[in-house]
């Protein structure tokens, strides 16, 4: 799957390639061979493939077709050849110092997208941290409720005359405990995973913007270099016409030779 995503980025560097599903936490990784872990991971990767196959561009990619239909030997042969445009873009990303300010002035629409994505990512991160803190407090509360339930049960055994009132307290604690455990169980699927998925998509958008900047940087660098060489040549031509020594200061091109011959 890492190979698939990297090849899609290489083939479509300016598109937002969906991020891979987030890894589980450390405790779940320790039990990564359990059936529940494997089934959950399979479900997330299946959803990832569904998003790619339903995409109007990625669904037509030969890379995705190869990933889904190739035999093991054929896939291994293709997966070993990873060098390409992605490596060149990665190298260009390292030379973007000082370009972002210029780019924000020339292309404000992309800078607006970047600012919105950064703001959304920051808000989602805060929500994720708050949700994790609430989940931690719920775990502690569940432990306290269980301790309280056991204490009430012991109290009932020692004071039977209060059993009617204490039984009502115990039933209330059991009801709250069931609700708390339900909230703990649905936290991963209803809160944690969606937030992490949104965060991964904001990261994917940032990566796409950086790749676009790298391509733009390469284009403008090549254009500026071509312009510089043209100006230098024109300057040398002017010097050649005024030096009076009868020789050129630059290497003659084929067009110059044809012109002189005619």
From TrEMBL:
InterPro entries in alphabetical order: AH/BAR_dom_sf (IPR027267), PX_dom (IPR001683), PX_dom_sf (IPR036871), Vps5_C (IPR015404)
Gene Ontology terms describing biological process: autophagy of mitochondrion; endocytic recycling; piecemeal microautophagy of the nucleus; protein transport; reticulophagy
Membrane topology, from the record: Peripheral membrane protein
Tagged with keyword Cell membrane: no
Subcellular localization(s) per the UniProt record: Cytoplasm; Endomembrane system
GO cellular component: early endosome; phagophore assembly site
Keywords on record: Cytoplasm, Lipid-binding, Membrane, Transport
Entry keyword annotation includes Protein biosynthesis: no
GO molecular function (one): phosphatidylinositol binding
Ranges where the PX domain occurs: 1-74
Domain of life: Eukaryota
Family, as annotated: Belongs to the sorting nexin family.
Protein name according to UniProt: Sorting nexin-30-like protein
Source organism (scientific name): Triatoma infestans
């Amino acid at each position: 799957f890492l190979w698939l995503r990297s090849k899609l980025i290489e083939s479509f560097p300016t598109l937002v390639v969906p991020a891979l599903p987030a890894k589980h936490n450390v405790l779940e990784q320790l039990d990564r061979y359990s059936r529940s872990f494997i089934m959950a991971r399979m479900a997330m990767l299946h959803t990832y493939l569904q998003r790619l196959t339903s995409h109007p561009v990625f669904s037509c990619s030969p890379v995705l077709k190869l990933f889904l239909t190739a035999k093991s030997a054929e896939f291994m042969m293709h997966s070993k050849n990873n060098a390409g445009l992605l490596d060149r873009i990665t190298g260009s990303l390292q030379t973007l110092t000082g370009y972002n300010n210029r780019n924000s002035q020339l292309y404000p629409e992309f800078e607006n997208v970047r600012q919105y994505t950064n703001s959304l990512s920051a808000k989602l991160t805060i929500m994720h941290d708050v949700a994790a803190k609430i989940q931690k407090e719920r775990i502690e509360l569940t432990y306290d409720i269980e301790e309280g339930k056991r204490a009430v049960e012991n109290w009932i055994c020692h004071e039977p005359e209060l059993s009617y009132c204490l039984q009502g307290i115990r039933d209330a604690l059991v009801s709250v405990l069931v609700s708390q455990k339900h909230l703990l169980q649905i936290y991963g699927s209803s809160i944690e995973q969606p937030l992490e998925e949104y965060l991964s998509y904001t990261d994917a958008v940032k990566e796409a913007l950086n790749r676009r900047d790298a391509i733009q940087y390469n284009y403008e660098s090549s254009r500026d270099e071509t312009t510089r060489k043209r100006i230098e040549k024109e300057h040398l031509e002017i010097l050649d016409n005024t030096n009076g020594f009868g020789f050129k200061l630059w290497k003659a091109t084929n067009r110059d030779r044809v012109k002189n011959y005619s």
